[in-house]
Amino acid sequence: MRRCTLFLFAATGAIAACTDGTAPSESDHQPAQAPAAAIGTDYPRGIGQPDRVSWDIAKQLPGFGGLYWDDAGNLHVFLTDLSLADRAKQAFATKLASRRPGMITRPSGPRSVIIHQGRYDVRQLIQWRRLARDVALTVPGTYSVGVSGSTNTIAVGVETPAAGSALLAAMAAAGLPPDAVTVIIGAGPKRTESLSSQPDTIEGGFRVEHFLMRNTYYYTGQCTLGLIGILDQVSVIATASHCTADHHGVEGTELYQP
Predict the structure, then answer these.
(1) How far apart are CA 128 and CA 36, in angstroms?
(2) Kind and range of the H or E element at 76?
(3) What is the pTM of this model?
(4) Which of 76, 182, 207, 246 is the most exposed place for a label (fewest CB within 10 A)?
């Protein structure tokens, strides 16, 4: 059985809001009361492993609203309660140190955990996403829905401004706060061919697995082997971040081919 250690990971988010590269200040987001049901302690039915990781972080750090990396390697974290800022910086210190130099595109000196005022606990956003998805399915021109760690909102991709306006109106009618939704206008994905449309001389699509313990139980995860290469003079492979033990970091998860 062939084994390898993962050093490189792909982006975690299915969707993220477009920004100009300027990190928001603590005054950009002010707390708001969400007209939603209380946040439970158990995972909502049907959420994926990346959301479970965020959910677990918020259970340990109440008010955690999501996170993202900037090009300089700083880790940005949203909190609804800024009194927990020092606690959050300590909690994410290891994750900050795990960022490999090869993944920092614009180094600019010492890196840090930067705290921003958030509106919503990420668990609230995860619960709202199901409702947002159901609403989005009724609006033509909507092509994606996801929780955005870079905006502390539910990010929705639409093809036209008209679709965006219709979507926001439908979200408001469903009871979602307007400041909990970010609309991204752009061309949606277009299917032009499938993996079986034509043969290729490059081998790909090999299955890989990992065996991990999470929350006192063991499970086996299945993923796809991506690119193979060299990073910082170390042989690496690339795969999706949700294939690893830490969905927001690089921790050396062992993968193998069954």
Answers:
(1) 8
(2) strand 75-79
(3) 0.62
(4) 207
